[in-house]
Amino acid sequence: MIPGATDPRSGRIAVWTAVVGTVFIAVGAFWLSFTALADLARRSGIAPTQAWAWPLIVDGIIVVGTVAVVALAGQRGAWYPWMLLMIGAAVSVAANSIHAVVAADADVLPVLAASVAAVPPLVLLAITHLTVVLTQRFRLRVSCTTETSRDLSTEVVQLRPLADVPEEGSRRSVAALMRQRGMSNKEIASATGVHPSTVGRWFAGTLGTPEFQKGATS
Fold first, then answer.
1. 3-state helix, strand, coil in the chain (%, to 5)
2. Cα angle for residues 167, 168, 169 (degrees, 5° grid)
3. What is the pLDDT of residues 135-145, one digit of tens each?
4. Among candidate residues 4, 3, 11, 1, the one with its CA nearest the CA of residue 142
5. 99 near 42, Cβ under 8 Å?
6. What's the predicted TM-score (pTM) here?
7. Which of 60, 161, 162, 171 has a C-alpha 20 to 30 A away from that of 137?
8. How far is the CA of 196 from the CAs of 102, 169, 170, 175, in angstroms?
9. By the 8 A CB rule, do 88 and 65 touch?
10. What is the distance, to the nearest Å, from the Cα of residue 76 to the centroid of all Cα atoms in its chain?
């Protein structure tokens, strides 16, 4: 196992545990914001059969804008989803606060009502962004771990030369196995701790003898 690497299985479990938690929080925040905005739409003259569409539009911009911002991060066109995200968040927070002031009881301070009502849209914004970033970072880490694992055997051979093997025949045996795996003379020399010209003499001279082939395959 590579030092410092995270087990993909444990990482996947952690990610999906976090995603499930964020989904529950997002559903609660969306429901609170949805009911407030739908009631505000009805109070503003929109028909009750159509009032449900207004919160979907407002809060839907937050969700879609957040995903687009993460997907287009660092690109020239990222300013547009950022603009939609800021507009959607501002409209949702303002609308929820206005509804709280209008619908609150007389003994509740307007500032307190507006502050409480502003929490759901802000939580929806933060949780959506967290979920997208979490899943994206995990996919990148798994991809890097997979690519590193594919080249692990080659890297170990190159980074651990066999300079501590005194028998030349053993080095020749290792060289023969490396040649069968398609490694060049320079790579074999680096791995066995000899000069590339020595590897060339091995292959040009005794490499093809029956004794050496027998030792290489045993």
1. 80, 0, 20
2. 90
3. 766 655 555 45
4. 11
5. no
6. 0.53
7. 60
8. 84, 16, 17, 11
9. yes
10. 22
Nearest CA among 187, 140, 190 for reference residue 148: 140
3-state secondary structure 165-185: CCCHHHHHHHHHHHHHCCCCH
Is the CA virtual torsion 134, 81, 90, 58 positive or negative? Answer: negative
pLDDT for 167 equals: 52
CB atoms near residue 183 (< 10 Å)? 19
State how far the Cα of 54 lies from the Cα of 200, in Å rounded to an integer.
Answer: 77
pLDDT digits over 73-107, tens only?
778 888 888 888 889 889 999 999 999 998 888 78
pLDDT, mean over the chain:
75
Residue 198 corresponds to which tokens in the numbers above?
């020595």
Asked if pLDDT for residue 216 goes beyond 60, the answer is no
- Burial label, 120 (beta-carbon count in 10 A; 0-12, 13-18, 19+): buried
pLDDT exceeds 50 at position 188: yes
Give the Cβ contact number of residue 111 at 10 Å.
Answer: 11
